[in-house]
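S.,

Sequence below, as promised.
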Amino acid sequence: MPPIPTLTTARLILRPFVLEDLDELEVIHSEESFWWYPFRSGMTREQTEAFLARVVERYESDGFGVEAAIDRDRGVMVGWAGLAVPHFLPEILPAVEVGWRFAEASRGRGLATEAGAAALSWGFTTGGLDRIVSIYEPANVASGRVMERLGFAPRLTATGNRGEEVVVMELTRRQWEERDADG
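The prediction came back faster than expected:
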């Protein structure tokens, strides 16, 4: 597996997290809306620290992991996005998921679509993946729309590890290549 990449888009830099990101990530993670799906609350500093340690560890163990999303103009973290193994939904494993979360002030600007497209491109080319999933709660309509814009189609409905209903969307490399060729 290639190393975790740094990806650059028109407005973002997606780069691997480092443990020194804790202070900046804590501010974003504390927003209730950031973690509304699935927790319905923000994270504490301790929860954010555990999240960050787990992400960094999984770069090695899984070969994938979400990355810090940095606003290119301001140089500040506005969320995270990228590819990760969805350990919370074992019935669909083996799988790699594309996902994103952005601070409230950065939502509604197309950043999730931009970050998701960059992660898909890397995953289907350099990453060598044949399929990528994306998972959301049906009430999270905005995330579902991003997935549709990226070309995902529903694969199945499952139950997440907190008892919530989730929709698993799927995109194959072939579908992505056909969509990419169509412009």
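Helices lie at 22-29, 36-39, 45-62, 111-124, 141-149, 173-181.

Coffee later?
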